[in-house]
Design goal:
The protein is built from one helix and 34 strands. It is mainly beta. The strands form 16 sheets. It has a three-stranded antiparallel β-sheet, with no helix packed on it. Strands 20-21-24 form a three-stranded antiparallel β-sheet, with no helix packed on it. The radius of gyration is 60 Å and the shape is rod-shaped. It starts with a strand and ends with a strand. The model has no long low-confidence stretch (mean pLDDT 94).
Length: 378
């Protein structure tokens, strides 16, 4: 007696979301398949659910899952999943009703505080820490960089850079140069001041050099050259001090001598006279000691070109050349005094009126007189 939905049915079957021609139970009034429109439950916003209920489709506003076809209400809309993990939402523009990733850089407060404060979403459905938040690995950070125990805005791996206020004076999470005059991460070894290189501290994001005008080598004097102190140029180079010749003096411990007490205080071309280093005299000039002469020989009160020590030799001329003492002139050498005299040819022989036997014994080369009584004659 009941013809429903084109078939004879076991009852009138007039309830919404029930039909008598449901596959597998034709002729028996049954619930229509989930998601099917039927009766007053039609349109883009509702569909039949199990139990002959007419529920809202995904994307429709809801306050609880009981009114949703999916049985799930998230972010105020019927959703295709529970969508209750961090950085997931079901009310995203363009995909309302479908659980999706919250955009990069945004926060998620559903459930309450699940990704807020020092956290934000990375766009891939993961809650990450913002710069400045404490961390132990880069994977925890939105930036992917964990430096000095906080999430950092960059890799911040250069020497003398850090990412905490304690080291830089800047906000935590911002990579910046460490405070000048410090080296919290031991990036800069200390070099000897003689190198003018690293002081062991940082400055302006680099290892600090010894400042300009820092002494890198003391003043010194060696081999007759006085060197002023060397100083750093501020860029890691020790600039040698100016050198000055000590001539005519020699070096003292650290500088040139300025007066003399002995000849050793003077260079080899000078001698000490009245506390002043004086140029040595040339051959022929008057002298009193050998150290006054460039040749090293003072003979007969003149600087001589040679030692001139042979008997009957003299250097007493303005040329300073060693020459023979004139005939019949005594030499100041003890070997040619008394009965002897010089012959003018560099030999010391008998003087006139001295007894002789041959001419060669006489300075005059003339031995005259009877045998046994001959004497040197002019």
């Amino acid at each position: 007696t009941n013809c429903v939905d084109g078939v004879c049915c076991n009852n009138t079957c007039t309830t919404t979301c029930r039909s008598c021609n449901v596959a597998g139970s034709v002729g028996t009034c049954s619930d229509v398949p989930k998601g099917t429109d039927d009766g007053t439950c039609t349109g883009a916003n509702v569909s039949c659910n199990i139990g002959a209920d007419c529920d809202d489709e995904n994307g429709q506003s809801c306050t609880g899952g009981n009114s949703c076809l999916s049985g799930l209400c998230a972010d105020g809309v019927c959703c295709n999943s529970a969508c209750n993990t961090a950085c997931k939402a079901c009310n995203l523009t363009g995909s309302v009703g479908t659980c999706g990733n919250i955009a990069s850089g945004q926060q998620d407060n559903n459930p309450t505080n699940i990704c807020t404060g020092m956290n934000q979403c990375d766009g891939n459905g993961v809650c990450k820490k913002v710069p400045g938040a404490s961390c132990s690995a880069g994977s925890e950070c939105f930036s992917t960089f964990c430096v000095d125990g906080v999430c950092c805005s960059s890799a911040c791996g250069a020497p003398c850079q850090a990412c905490t206020m304690a080291k830089t004076g800047s906000a935590d999470g911002m990579c910046a140069n460490v405070t000048t005059g410090t080296d919290p991460d031991n990036d800069c070894a200390m070099d000897p001041v003689s190198t003018c290189d690293r002081t062991g501290f940082c400055a302006a994001g680099a290892c600090q050099n010894y400042v300009a005008d820092t002494q890198c080598a003391a003043a010194s004097c060696s081999n007759g050259m006085q060197s002023a102190e060397s100083k750093c140029n501020g860029t890691g180079t020790c600039v040698a001090g100016m050198t000055t010749s000590c001539t005519p003096y020699v070096c003292d411990a650290m500088s040139c001598k300025t007066s003399c007490g002995t000849d050793s205080d003077c260079v080899s071309t000078h001698y000490c006279s009245s506390m002043l280093c004086t140029p040595k005299l040339a051959a022929g000039q008057m002298c009193t000691t050998a150290d006054q002469c460039a040749s090293g020989f003072c003979v007969d009160d003149r600087c001589c070109a040679e030692a001139c020590t042979d008997v009957c030799k003299t250097c007493g001329n303005t040329m300073g050349a060693c020459s023979n003492i004139p005939l019949n002139t005594d030499d100041d050498n003890p070997a040619c005094t008394g009965t002897n005299t010089c012959n003018g040819l560099g030999a010391c022989l008998l003087q006139n009126e001295e007894i002789c036997t041959t001419d060669s014994e006489c300075a005059s080369n003339n031995c005259s007189g009877p045998p046994g009584a001959a004497v040197c004659k002019p």
